[in-house]
Design goal:
mainly alpha, Serine Threonine Protein Phosphatase 5, Tetratricopeptide repeat, 2 domains, elongated, metal-binding
């Protein structure tokens, strides 16, 4: 269990605010007293602890431990930031993941970006895909995508094609009469 102040959690996340309000209301109605418990499911205890530390730190960067947390757990923290609606953490995680993209990691990062509605990360992934497509195409992740999710493969190829069409289109001159 990770002890935390409900006011800090509620001020950092509207989702946690709603959960805590309901839990505290139930505690009051029961007349037993006690504490509200929020379970953060789907991640390890280390990631949950990092998430709470980050909520306490707020959007302040530069503090060693929270910087390390984002670098170490960026993918899991992005999922939590999306689920609990913490926009500043979502952006921070997108930057961290985007800064270390490689042809071998870009497919998984793109899928994560799409699942978490992370447009900044999606754009960085698409730029790397456009630049390094031949290398990406040779990765196990791309082969897995091709074999198991042909619709997403088609969507990626369509986006790459559309971007290429925009990049290679000749500029159109517009003449205005005065």
């Amino acid at each position: 269990k990770i002890a935390a102040h409900s006011s800090v959690l509620a001020s950092a996340s509207p989702v946690l605010e709603t959960i805590l309000e309901r839990r505290l209301q139930r505690v009051k109605e029961s007349g037993k007293g006690g504490r509200a418990v929020v379970r953060i499911r789907g991640v390890t205890d280390d990631v949950a602890a990092a998430f709470v530390r980050l909520l306490y730190a707020g959007s302040r960067r530069g503090e060693g431990e929270v910087e390390e947390d984002v670098e170490k757990y960026a993918e899991q923290l992005l999922v939590l930031a999306h689920a609990y609606r913490v926009p500043w953490l979502k952006l921070w995680c997108q930057e961290a993941i985007g800064s270390r993209l490689t042809p071998g990691t870009v497919v998984d990062a793109l899928q994560l970006a799409d699942l978490c509605d992370a447009p900044q990360l999606h754009l960085r992934c698409m730029r790397l895909l456009a630049k390094e497509f031949r290398a990406v195409e040779r990765t196990e992740a791309w082969r897995f995508l091709r074999d198991n999710d042909p619709w997403q493969e088609l969507d990626v190829l369509r986006q790459l094609h559309d971007a290429d069409m925009v990049r290679t289109a000749r500029p159109v001159e517009v003449l205005a009469k005065y």
